[in-house]
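Following up on my earlier message about adenosine-5'-diphosphate. Here are the inputs again, as you asked, copied directly from the submission form:
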Amino acid sequence: MKDTASPEVTLAGVGLSRRYGNNLAVDDVSLELKRGEILGLLGPNGAGKTTAMKMITGNLAPSAGSVNVCGIDLIDRPTAAKAKIGYLPEIPPLYKELRVDEYLRLAGRLHRLPGSALGDAVQRAKRRAGLSDMGQRLIGSLSKGYQQRVGIAQAIIHDPDVVILDEPTVGLDPNQIREIRSLIRELGNEHSVILSTHILPEVEAICDRVQILHRGKVVFADAISGLRAFRGGHSLQVSLRRPPQLEDLQKAVQPAQVEQVGEGVFRVIAPPGQDSTDQLLRESLERDWGLYQLSPAQASVEEVFVHLTRQDDAGAVMTEDSRMETPA
Ligand code: ADP
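Thanks, got it. Here's what our run produced:
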């Protein structure tokens, strides 16, 4: 690919694939990141997230495809392209016997920062990662949450345009997770960020857009609002004291689809753009079904994956355009 990316696009991966022997770990994945945007790469373990991230950071050669960082081709000009990227791998590259300041100076030198700029760069990275008072602490003596902050500080030490974080909250406790998520949101104000995770609410809490990977392929790509709509903007959960037979309920609310999810509890999924609420209220009053609960339903993470996997097995890719055309 030539160095022609538009200035607003900080990172573009096109047609990326990677084989390990016979295993196609990443299969024709494309992604684009704009300045100031946080993109979530979501997928279960083994989906290909780490492999994709290693390719877009120049740590693993793709079997096919290209990566362009701020207009610079990663394969043609790796040193210049990598200078624009900060990377926090799944296992942070920390030297636990070093003090925070020592380690960040080392990270800065590895990124070829001149000696005169190191002091300021370390101070700035520490401030942004919430480590200002921690410079003299041994990394090994810090909590896991603070060690992760050090990992993020080394990723931003050279003030890169793009920051890539692989499963940054794994192994942290709930308070640490909250702090690291808020730190990532702040990073998104100045940098473009790609974040991988297997936790759907994490993507909803932090990201502007999401790409869902399944068996190496992109099975969903949309804004977070699109993901929320996909999870159930048009689904209702209804509880009935005197439920009819499933077929009768199905007939009464068609064209919506009905699934039974518990004793007297049903999920009613309306076609895109339609709402079954009024119809359901009317029918349940007329037929005396003893309606006592009616609420919007959100598909669980498992349901989202099952649904997308079904699409994937049918050969379809869920994108902004095709999302609503396929019934749930
Ligand atoms: P994720 O980060 O989503 O958990 P990975 O990118 O780690 O997924 O793995 C994707 C697939 O590639 C998995 O089937 C995994 O077993 C395989 N894989 C990853 N790294 C290697 C490797 N170094 N050698 C062989 N297979 C690998």
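One observation from looking it over: Residues 312-328 have pLDDT under 50 and may be disordered. Hope that helps, and feel free to reply on this thread.
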